[in-house]
Structures are given as structure tokens and as C-alpha cells.
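User: quick one
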Amino acid sequence: MSVDLATVKRVARLARIAVSEDDAMRMTGELNAILGFVEQLQEVDVDGVEPMTSVTPMAMKKRQDVVTDGDRAADIVANAPASEENFFLVPKVVE
Amino acid sequence: MTDLTRLTIAEARAKLSAREITASELTDAYLGAIEQANPALNAYVAVTADQARAMAKASDERLARGEMRALEGIPLGIKDLFATEGVHTQAASHILDGFRPRYESTVTANLWADGAVMLGKLNMDEFAMGSSNETSHYGAVINPWRARGSNSQLVPGGSSGGSAAAVAGFLCAGATATDTGGSIRQPAAFTGTVGIKPTYGRCSRWGIVAYASSLDQAGPIARDVRDAAILLKSMASVDDKDTTSVDLPVPDYEAALGRPVRGMKIGIPKEYRVDGMAAEIEELWQKGIAWLKDAGAEIVEVSLPHTKYALPTYYIISPAEASSNLARYDGVRYGLRVPGKDIVEMYENTRAAGFGKEVKRRILIGTYVLSAGYYDAYYIRAQKVRTLIKKDFDTVFAAGVDVILTPATPSAAFGVADQDMAADPVKMYLNDVFTVTVNMAGLPGIAVPAGLDGNGLPLGLQLIGKPFEEETLFKTAHVIEQAAGRFQPEKWW
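Assistant: Done. Structure below.
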């Protein structure tokens, strides 16, 4: 499989990365080189093989459903580019 | 007075314990070395001199009271991927500009609890995506090694290139690193240092900037096998904050050094004899086989039939996980924000400006292979092949093999701005051909220097072990180290 310019632009839109026409052209070539490289996986017989979900055969740890942290709003917004009264500030999203 | 930066961790520990040197003297020696060398090597992206001196002073006070923890007063460099409270943590990316976390990663917290001193944060490939440390927002790291009779700049490998260069160039006693497809072992091999990627789940991933969560694992880069064992003992722990952290006690890895390898079965996988591999790599491999045989180990040829599929599998799974993990960098909660006419344009502009080329490339690949219509053909198929790759190892270990011996990399360090690799991303990816299988299967792997090539550049061997048998790797690597000797670059910087 290979991608065309329109697909690259669509994928960039899905990934929320602005791309110029030149970027998209260059990336089309690069992505096709990588997709060409991974194409060889099509020759592997994977019939009846389970997809891997975990490398170690261990049950995922669970903890009690209790509050163990919190009340750290100031810490959480400390690195925000814009915040006010412990809220993140973003451009208007609803009219 | 001897140059304190030349001491290994074990040697420094002995001198600190005997009160022959102080932690402050040791830290000052490293801070001086960094100031002098960093303009040439670019290994550090941030130096925390005041913090280092304060930590060293606290260690000296403890030592004066006759108290000494495992890493008391040992100056370390920390890869920029680890969250360090109040200190530069940017995964060497522009998009995390100014990020100073309000928390500490579990691995670094473990090191400080054992008395280690933080010298600063180390350069790396952006978000750990690269094999040459050239994708960093802070510029390439320069390898302290040069080809004999040449002054051209070589890469230290990646993504933990800053860690490897700082250890090889005597700018820290040891360093933290991380490995998703070979990012500890390949730079260790390129710089004549020792690097171990432990079993998945051995070190907590909490507070480590995520790249591909099912593959990422922290480990040390050190001057020798003993130092790597000392560091891993402190870095590893059982951590409730990482659900994939494994509930097993951490052994005393250092105690494994010197244990016999007599009677051990060493597997030699025939699939690792790849096309176009340098004759010197094959010779090195044969030397490793001979050393282990001389020590009484039994050598057996083994087969890992899906080896050639590991790299293509990696270049589906890791970008898929990365595209998901890196969705959080949106200009809202931390780092860079580039305005736009609405919120979506702000996201798009921020991510366009904040991510470098390689990171964008991997996010796009990941987004594509996870998108509707391609998910089964790419992602699910890759996860199935991953099962087969792991099964290959399971079969070999079930047949009685204790450790697998392979070359660490297909070549020695290459030049900065290599034209072939710049033109073809896949060529750069091939650097990880021997290391990436280990991440796919979640196994421990160690790279240990084993010789120099015809140009006087270091080459490494890799040992792969069973899950949580890092002790076996340390004792076997120690045998190779004793036979091969240690390798240090000639100071030019």
C-alpha cells in the first residue's frame, strides 16, 4: 500500500499537525519509503496467531478505588502557557 | 592529584567510604569537566550546578557521620526524558519549551534516595526517536571517539546519545537512559560503554516521557559492567504508580559478577548474520564466542526465524503508540503554544512548530496505521508478528539456552550528517536491527564493549537473557569485559 498527497494531508489533519504543500510532498515520499519497508510483514503467516497485548504474562495490577491524590490544581496549571484561577485558558470553542 | 572524573563508580565509592575524597570534590571535578567539554560534545542540555553542589554537600555530611547509601555522593547525568522536579525536562523537544515538572520520576527519585548527585540533564533524540542523536532540538551530540588519524565528527548513537557521550567523555560517573528499540545499547556500543535495557517492567516508567509505552524501558549507561550493575540496582523498583511495574524483589546485581559461566548454554542465532554486515562485526562475534567457550560455556547455534520482521513490526507499533502518546502536546497544558484563528488551528500550528521532522514522520505513520481501514492490515498484523517474535525466543530458552550472544550494532559509529541516512529514513532505522527484537519480546539485553574496528572505533556485543535474569547478563558480560579489556577515547575536546 502507498499513500498519495491527499492522504498525507488528511492524516496530518487527523494528527493535528499543520503541513505546507512542500512538507506534504516531502512527507509523501518518506511515508511511502517506510510503508514499503513494512510491506514485508504481509508475507508472514499469522493465521491463528493472537495479537500481543502484553510481553509479560502477568495480570495488570489494580488498586483500591479510593482517592489517593488531589488538591494540586496550582501544580497542574503551573506549566500552562495560559491559565487563570487554576483553569487552563484556550481560544473560544463555543459560540 | 589524579583526575577524579576517571574513577569508576565502584572506585569512587571506595574512596568516598575511606574518606580519601569528598563528594564535593568529586562533583566539582565533574562540573569543571562539563564546563570545559560541553561546548565541544553538547552532551548536556541543562547543568544543575547549584543543585549538584547542595546534594554533594549533604552527602559529605552523611559521610562525616559514617552513613553511606548505595550511591552516596556519586555524580550522575539524567536523560532529558526523566521528569526531574523543578528542572528542565523537555525530551529534547521544542514543544516542551520551559517545562519544569512539579514531580520526580520514580527512577530518579530512587537514585536520589540512594544518595546520588544530579549534574544535569542529558541531550537525546527528540522524544527518544532517533539512532544518532541528531533529531534533538538542542543539536547533535558529538561522540568523544574519533577514527584514528581523523578529526571528523561522529555521532554517539541514539536516542540516549547524550548519556553515552557524557559517560564515555568523563562528564558524569554514570547516566540514566531509556531504550525503546535499542536506544541504550546502540549508543553504548558506539561509545565503548556498557548499557543494559532490563526486562520490561523492571524499572518504573512513571515520570518518564512516553514514546511507545509497550516497549519503553529505563536502564543505565556506565563505564563498566560493575557500574551498570550498581546503577540498575538503584534504578529498579516495584512501583504502584506504574501498572506494568513487576512485583519482584530487586536482586543485588553486583554480587553476580565473578560467578562462573561454566556449563552455561550460549545461543548464537544464525539469523543475525545479516547481508552487508562488516567483516569486523563477524570477527568480533567470533571473538566473543571464543571468550565464553574458554570460560567453560557451551556454544549452540539457535534459530530465531522471525528476526527479519522485528524492525518492520517496530516501525508500525512504535509510531502507533507514539501518535497516541504525543497527542497530549497541544499547547494547552504545558510547553509551546502557537496561536491560531481557532482552537484547532492553535493545535495544528503548535504541533507543526513544536515537533521536529522525525517526530512528525512517526506521528503521521502511527496515525495512518491506526486509521479506519488500515488498522487490521497494519497494526493488528504487526501485533501478531510480535507474538511470533516473542515465541521464537521462548522456544530457544525452553530448549535450555541461558543467554543469546549477538553483535550490538551492524557497524561502528558513523559521521554526523551522514548523507545516505539523511536521504533514506529506513537506512537510519537499520541501526537497530540487532537490538529491536529484544524490545519486541520484552527481554533484558546488555551491550558490552568487545573491541575496536580497523579505524580504532569501539564495537560492542549484545547478550540477551530470559525475563528478569539480568544477573545472568551481568555475570556473562563481565566475562567478556575481562577478556576484551576496557576502551577509552583519547581526549581531544
